[in-house]
Specification:
Elements lengths: L3 H10 L9 E2 L10 H10 L12 H11 L6 E4 L1 H13 L5 E6 L4 H8 L3 E6 L8 H8 L4 E5 L11 H10 L5 E5 L14 H7 L3 E6 L12 E5 L1 H8 L11 H10 L1 H24 L11 E4 L6 H5 L5 E4 L5 E4 L3 H14 L1
Parallel strand pairs: 1-10, 3-4, 3-5, 5-6, 6-7
Antiparallel strand pairs: 2-8, 7-8, 9-11, 10-11
Amino acid sequence: MQPLSQVAGDSLATLPDAVDPLALSLNENPFTPLPTVRSALIAATGSVNRYPEFLPESLRRLIAGHIGVAEDQVVVGPGATGVAMQLLHAVTAPGDRIAMAAPTFDGYPIFARMARLQPIMVPLDEHGCHDLDALAEAAADAKVVVLCRPHNPTGTVESAPAVERFLAAVPSDTIVLLDEAYIEFVAPAFRLDGLSLIQRYPNVLVLRTFSKAYGLAGLRIGYGFGSAELTALLWRMQLPFGMDCTGLVAVAASYDAERELRRRIRVITAQRRYLRMRLRAMGVYVTEGHANFVYLPPARKPWREVFDPAGLRVRHYTDGGVRITVGDRISTRAVLAAVAEWR
């Protein structure tokens, strides 16, 4: 077996460097769209003078067929964030409560304010994982509860049995938003069986996106799937002409290029392991993340003083922790050099 450092370096050498290797705060895919996807998008620009479908029925049908659910069990939106807002508009009223971890994806506190909801913030445990017992307890007083898996910003995942116990403890009239934005970066052994979960828990909506592993963040394509009763509520919130007409083309081309996509995912996950290994070798604690980023808890010296002088744009948190997107080899070298300078 090749050393991990050689696997990461050789793999990345075959792919183009990131457009901006020092921009590591938004968990973007560092590589440009796959060649076949890019070609399909270029061809699709010839029809942008026409409106897209009134409602994105074709995109919905395509995604449903790919993941193996009925068409009426899927809802799509402008990114996963768009689907999340559709959910909140569909099932909550101003003053209702929403439970979530602290810290969590930046969007959820913003969405709560936009929907005029009262957030219940549940601290993560000492390992950067959800405190599922406390979150289930908070869910009893909430209309919606959010579970990010892998979690953003720590990248951690809870075991499938633990998630099962959590879902069983959540009241059936509380909607569980299971955010799997980074699912493609999770090894199969650590993934949940989303199709089984939505059959047994009709209050669960699984949320996914084409922004991360698929590298289509700029096109804003996300989707959710769940019980037909739940997705019907969200579909009523679908904005007419609200999805870009290139989205269907990009998704279809991406599905056709899944072998190339899986190769890119292997490159990024190998780079994640390499970066984590090297940081730990320097004495830096790194959570056991399963996404396309690494998370460093607060340290004796503020991380801002480590990364800002190096020109690295990473995501800093108020408690002193930092999230660093896994980029290309140039990005990794810059991160390691900054930490080495500090050490």
